[in-house]
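Exam revision sheet. Question 4 asks you to relate a sequence to its structure. Input first:
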Amino acid sequence: MWEGDCGCVVVTHDDATVAGIVTDRDLAMAAWIGGKPLAEIPVRTAMASPARAVLASDSLSAVLEALTQEQVHRVPVLDESGVLVGLVSLADVVRVQAKNRVLDAASLVDTIAAICRPRHVEVEALPTPEPTVALTPQAKPAEAATTAAAPRPIEVSAGSAKPQSKPDPRNQGKRR
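Answer key, structure tokens:
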């Protein structure tokens, strides 16, 4: 995902049908909750399954409906036999809309609002991870209370002067 600069991967079975979808957030949460490195976590435990998908022949309105209902930013695209042929994202739909104006702008705004709406899900208390670094206070508690409110002086050495900003080329030859 890092090398491909992508936020999700569609997980498929051997026959290229969709098994699920996993996002960078899914991976981060699986590692945090499980307290294990990603190399020790099976993908099937982190992926969302079943994944909502659309057909390649579906309209952009159907894509917006799927994004809205699932509150997701991306959905897999399948051919008529259920084989993965791509992935479509909200950003893809916005780019098409900006270029071709094929959708009602209100439906696009409604989709974005629905995706961003908080999911009111009751969650069991998450386990508190073991601290990996021991923190040692640098000041006595009474001193910490008095110094916390006061601004700390900033030390600047002769070699750490702020670099000069480059002049704006639009203003060359003009006086202010």
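Marking note for examiners. The domain at 1-51 is CATH 3.10.580.10 (CBS-domain).
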